[in-house]
ABC transporter ATP-binding protein (Bosea caraganae), 459 residues
Amino acid sequence: MSSEVAISVGNLSKVYRIYNKPEHRLVQMATLGRIRPFKEFAALHDVSLEVKRGETIGIIGRNGCGKSTLLQIICGTLQPTQGSVKVRGRIAALLELGAGFSGEFTGRENVYMNGAILGFSREEMDARFDQIAQFAGIGEFIERPVKTYSSGMYVRLAFAVATAVEPDILIVDEALAVGDEAFQRKCYARIEAIKERGGTILFVSHGAQTIVQLCDRAILLDAGEKLLEGEPKAVVNQYQRLISASLEDQKRYRQEIKSGLAIGATTSPKGETTASFWQKDESRQEEDKTSSHNYDSFDENLRSESIVEYTINGAQIKNIRILDESGNAVNSISFGRPYRYQYDVEFLESAENAGFGMAIRDTSGLHLFGQSSGEIGKGKKFNKGEKLIVTFPFLNLLSPGLYYCNAGVGKYEDGEVMYAHRIVDGFVFRVHQFGADLLCSSTINLKAGPVSVDQHAEI
Ligand SMILES: Nc1ncnc2c1ncn2[C@@H]1O[C@H](COP(=O)(O)OP(=O)(O)OP(=O)(O)O)[C@@H](O)[C@H]1O
């Protein structure tokens, strides 16, 4: 293993044996394995991955997809059925609650025991103890048995120990979700500090935002298999599409993701690209370019390369766009000016209680703003064939930079809220620098106007 690599996992598989009754284990032992009264369940199948020193990798996937199993094998607390794991450096792990501490011992005693397991002497832990207790912030509970702790207190102490011992590799399994918001912020700051000093971090989370914000690379696990590995935002987009798909579509998506078809698929089902709408507006763009009132324009080269389109489920969103005050299509816009974010919707089936939404995210995937036409479930009925233009007016107070827009049509059917159609990162726009410098460009905000949904025959 090269010295640049901190973790190397090769063709890892884990098969659990599931016994219907505890005594079946005895039967197996008594018959020297001739009777095998168990079923086998493959929790991991042929997973390989490599984490370089200094990288932060996020693992995302549905419940039961094998994330914890993978981390436990990497930490050495679980044996694989097949495959290899090589680790270079000292690992500190925050695995699921209950692992790591002994309930009968006090917090203080557990801190010292954990330190000893990681190879620290009593003196070395003495030097760190006050800092650990202060970070955990659990007051006099540090002198009480850990079994009396709330889950939040437990995580506070576990995180304080795991990060105070300056690990080369930090492995965190969703644990932070238990702490309160202020503590989570403290933890993320500490994770950032570990990253900055070149530590390697392996991070499991269901939180798409966390993965996008913290990680250099993400891995999507599904049913024990590594489906995708890559840039966090692209991986998270596919994960979100997968978890909100019907069982039937999930199979197809898995195939698409595995074969690489799902990434950067920018074509809508009818073969129209999002850019085709804009080509219709070329004459208007020309007019706009000649007008002297602003620097707004439409940049043909600025296209979203991370579009993820959900299955059409009764409606279709088309032609996502931003229009300036005069109705010109723009994707390079000014600070402080009013615009309309717009898309067309055609209902392919009638839908009760439909609603329309949008969201804006920055390049890291951070959700900045979202708006909807109203609560889904209290919306109108729309008939098959009905065509609409959905408009979200806004005053642009976003700082210069690139932003990605989502569009979604929701409906309420059989007591369930679902997407009739959704496009993630369907449109990208730039807030340009011209004229923004003098304004307060640190504001990350939009001033939204009332959403309108207009019937339209020609879309
Ligand atoms: N000791 C065990 N015996 C049998 N099956 C197990 C055992 N531990 C885990 N499993 C099964 O293996 C699969 C993977 O479990 P794992 O805990 O790794 O998933 P996960 O992705 O971490 O799930 P979650 O997001 O819910 O924490 C699940 O279907 C789980 O039921």
Notes: Confidence is low (pLDDT under 50) at residues 263-293, 435-445. The chain has eleven helices and 21 strands.
